[in-house]
Specification:
The protein is of the alpha+beta class and 189 residues long. The chain has four helices and seven strands, in the order ααβαββαββββ. Strands 3-2-7 form a three-stranded antiparallel sheet. Strands 1-4 form a two-stranded antiparallel sheet. Strands 5-6 form a two-stranded antiparallel ribbon. The protein starts with a helix and ends with a strand.
Length: 189
Protein backbone atom coordinates (compact mmCIF):
# COMPACT_ATOMS: atom_id res chain seq x y z
CA UNK A 1 0.00 0.00 0.00
CA UNK A 2 2.85 2.37 0.83
CA UNK A 3 4.45 1.65 -2.55
CA UNK A 4 1.20 2.40 -4.33
CA UNK A 5 0.81 5.67 -2.43
CA UNK A 6 4.40 6.61 -3.21
CA UNK A 7 3.86 5.83 -6.90
CA UNK A 8 0.70 7.94 -7.04
CA UNK A 9 2.52 10.81 -5.30
CA UNK A 10 5.43 10.61 -7.77
CA UNK A 11 3.06 10.55 -10.75
CA UNK A 12 1.09 13.53 -9.44
CA UNK A 13 4.32 15.46 -8.79
CA UNK A 14 5.66 14.70 -12.28
CA UNK A 15 2.31 15.59 -13.85
CA UNK A 16 2.15 18.90 -11.94
CA UNK A 17 5.65 19.86 -13.02
CA UNK A 18 4.91 18.93 -16.64
CA UNK A 19 1.86 21.20 -16.55
CA UNK A 20 3.81 24.20 -15.34
CA UNK A 21 6.69 23.56 -17.73
CA UNK A 22 4.35 23.82 -20.74
CA UNK A 23 3.38 27.31 -19.61
CA UNK A 24 7.02 28.20 -18.94
CA UNK A 25 7.97 27.03 -22.45
CA UNK A 26 5.28 29.25 -23.95
CA UNK A 27 6.44 32.20 -21.82
CA UNK A 28 10.09 31.65 -22.73
CA UNK A 29 9.33 31.34 -26.46
CA UNK A 30 7.24 34.52 -26.32
CA UNK A 31 9.95 36.45 -24.48
CA UNK A 32 12.64 35.39 -26.97
CA UNK A 33 10.51 36.37 -29.94
CA UNK A 34 9.38 39.67 -28.46
CA UNK A 35 12.99 40.66 -27.65
CA UNK A 36 13.99 39.84 -31.21
CA UNK A 37 11.07 41.89 -32.51
CA UNK A 38 12.08 44.88 -30.35
CA UNK A 39 15.65 44.65 -31.64
CA UNK A 40 14.34 44.65 -35.20
CA UNK A 41 11.85 47.49 -34.54
CA UNK A 42 13.21 49.55 -31.62
CA UNK A 43 10.54 52.22 -32.06
CA UNK A 44 6.81 51.50 -32.12
CA UNK A 45 5.33 51.34 -35.60
CA UNK A 46 2.50 49.57 -37.41
CA UNK A 47 4.56 46.50 -38.32
CA UNK A 48 5.84 46.05 -34.75
CA UNK A 49 2.30 46.37 -33.39
CA UNK A 50 1.04 43.81 -35.88
CA UNK A 51 3.86 41.38 -34.99
CA UNK A 52 3.30 41.93 -31.24
CA UNK A 53 -0.33 40.93 -31.68
CA UNK A 54 0.62 37.82 -33.68
CA UNK A 55 3.06 36.79 -30.93
CA UNK A 56 0.39 37.39 -28.30
CA UNK A 57 -2.06 35.19 -30.22
CA UNK A 58 0.65 32.52 -30.49
CA UNK A 59 1.17 32.63 -26.71
CA UNK A 60 -2.58 32.40 -26.05
CA UNK A 61 -2.77 29.42 -28.40
CA UNK A 62 0.17 27.71 -26.66
CA UNK A 63 -1.55 28.16 -23.28
CA UNK A 64 -4.83 26.79 -24.66
CA UNK A 65 -3.01 23.75 -26.08
CA UNK A 66 -1.30 23.16 -22.72
CA UNK A 67 -4.66 23.38 -20.93
CA UNK A 68 -6.16 20.87 -23.37
CA UNK A 69 -3.29 18.45 -22.64
CA UNK A 70 -3.83 18.93 -18.93
CA UNK A 71 -7.52 18.18 -19.34
CA UNK A 72 -6.77 14.95 -21.21
CA UNK A 73 -4.23 13.86 -18.58
CA UNK A 74 -6.63 14.68 -15.75
CA UNK A 75 -9.29 12.46 -17.30
CA UNK A 76 -6.86 9.55 -17.09
CA UNK A 77 -6.06 10.23 -13.43
CA UNK A 78 -9.58 10.62 -12.01
CA UNK A 79 -10.03 8.31 -9.06
CA UNK A 80 -13.36 9.48 -7.64
CA UNK A 81 -16.49 8.70 -9.56
CA UNK A 82 -19.66 10.60 -8.78
CA UNK A 83 -22.14 8.37 -7.03
CA UNK A 84 -25.50 7.58 -8.62
CA UNK A 85 -27.19 9.64 -5.94
CA UNK A 86 -25.69 12.96 -5.00
CA UNK A 87 -24.93 12.97 -1.27
CA UNK A 88 -26.16 15.90 0.77
CA UNK A 89 -23.16 18.08 1.48
CA UNK A 90 -23.03 19.01 5.14
CA UNK A 91 -19.76 20.99 4.90
CA UNK A 92 -18.63 22.87 1.78
CA UNK A 93 -15.13 22.49 0.34
CA UNK A 94 -12.70 25.18 1.42
CA UNK A 95 -9.15 26.34 0.85
CA UNK A 96 -7.02 25.47 3.86
CA UNK A 97 -5.85 29.06 4.47
CA UNK A 98 -9.11 30.72 3.41
CA UNK A 99 -10.72 32.12 0.29
CA UNK A 100 -8.91 35.49 0.54
CA UNK A 101 -5.56 33.73 0.69
CA UNK A 102 -6.43 31.63 -2.35
CA UNK A 103 -7.64 34.67 -4.30
CA UNK A 104 -4.41 36.58 -3.53
CA UNK A 105 -2.29 33.61 -4.57
CA UNK A 106 -4.24 33.28 -7.83
CA UNK A 107 -4.18 37.02 -8.53
CA UNK A 108 -0.40 37.14 -7.97
CA UNK A 109 0.10 34.23 -10.39
CA UNK A 110 -1.68 35.96 -13.28
CA UNK A 111 0.59 38.13 -15.43
CA UNK A 112 -1.24 39.98 -18.16
CA UNK A 113 1.20 42.85 -18.58
CA UNK A 114 1.97 41.79 -22.16
CA UNK A 115 -1.74 42.13 -23.05
CA UNK A 116 -2.05 45.66 -21.65
CA UNK A 117 -5.21 44.40 -19.96
CA UNK A 118 -6.36 46.66 -17.15
CA UNK A 119 -10.04 46.05 -16.45
CA UNK A 120 -10.29 46.37 -12.69
CA UNK A 121 -11.97 44.57 -11.16
CA UNK A 122 -12.32 41.68 -13.60
CA UNK A 123 -15.12 39.41 -12.44
CA UNK A 124 -14.90 35.68 -13.02
CA UNK A 125 -16.46 32.48 -11.85
CA UNK A 126 -13.86 29.81 -11.21
CA UNK A 127 -15.21 26.29 -11.02
CA UNK A 128 -13.55 22.93 -10.64
CA UNK A 129 -14.18 19.43 -9.39
CA UNK A 130 -12.64 18.56 -6.05
CA UNK A 131 -12.31 14.88 -5.26
CA UNK A 132 -12.59 13.35 -1.80
CA UNK A 133 -8.80 13.60 -1.35
CA UNK A 134 -8.70 17.34 -2.08
CA UNK A 135 -7.37 17.09 -5.66
CA UNK A 136 -8.74 19.72 -8.05
CA UNK A 137 -9.38 19.04 -11.72
CA UNK A 138 -11.66 20.05 -14.60
CA UNK A 139 -10.95 23.74 -14.00
CA UNK A 140 -13.05 26.28 -15.88
CA UNK A 141 -12.97 30.08 -15.78
CA UNK A 142 -15.88 32.18 -16.98
CA UNK A 143 -15.39 35.89 -17.55
CA UNK A 144 -15.84 38.44 -20.33
CA UNK A 145 -12.52 37.83 -22.13
CA UNK A 146 -11.55 34.33 -23.32
CA UNK A 147 -7.82 35.12 -23.55
CA UNK A 148 -7.77 36.46 -20.00
CA UNK A 149 -9.77 33.44 -18.83
CA UNK A 150 -7.12 31.17 -20.38
CA UNK A 151 -4.32 32.85 -18.42
CA UNK A 152 -6.31 32.73 -15.17
CA UNK A 153 -6.96 29.02 -15.70
CA UNK A 154 -3.24 28.49 -16.34
CA UNK A 155 -2.46 30.45 -13.17
CA UNK A 156 -4.69 28.06 -11.22
CA UNK A 157 -2.53 25.15 -12.40
CA UNK A 158 0.64 27.10 -11.54
CA UNK A 159 -0.49 27.50 -7.92
CA UNK A 160 -2.34 24.20 -7.61
CA UNK A 161 0.38 22.65 -5.43
CA UNK A 162 1.01 25.75 -3.30
CA UNK A 163 -1.93 25.11 -1.02
CA UNK A 164 -4.46 22.47 -0.12
CA UNK A 165 -8.19 22.26 -0.61
CA UNK A 166 -10.27 20.55 2.04
CA UNK A 167 -12.93 18.44 0.31
CA UNK A 168 -16.63 18.86 0.95
CA UNK A 169 -18.14 16.51 3.51
CA UNK A 170 -21.31 14.53 3.78
CA UNK A 171 -22.02 13.47 7.35
CA UNK A 172 -18.33 13.82 8.25
CA UNK A 173 -17.02 11.86 5.24
CA UNK A 174 -15.09 13.61 2.44
CA UNK A 175 -16.95 13.53 -0.88
CA UNK A 176 -16.47 14.62 -4.47
CA UNK A 177 -17.97 18.05 -5.19
CA UNK A 178 -17.98 20.89 -7.67
CA UNK A 179 -16.57 24.13 -6.30
CA UNK A 180 -17.77 27.37 -7.85
CA UNK A 181 -16.14 30.60 -6.72
CA UNK A 182 -17.16 34.07 -7.86
CA UNK A 183 -13.96 36.13 -7.74
CA UNK A 184 -12.79 39.62 -8.58
CA UNK A 185 -9.32 39.84 -10.05
CA UNK A 186 -7.29 43.04 -10.04
CA UNK A 187 -4.60 43.54 -12.65
CA UNK A 188 -2.09 46.32 -12.28
CA UNK A 189 -0.03 47.68 -15.14
Amino acid sequence: MKRLSALVFILLFAFSNAQVSEFQKADSKYERKIKSLYRKYPKPNDERTKQEWLLTEEKISAYQNALEKISEEEKKMITDVPSATTPKITKEAEYATGKASFQKLLNDAVDLSFLNFAVNPYKITLSFTLDSKGNAYNVKVKGNNEAVNTFIEAAFYRIKDKGKWKPAESNGKPVLSVVSLPLQMNFSK
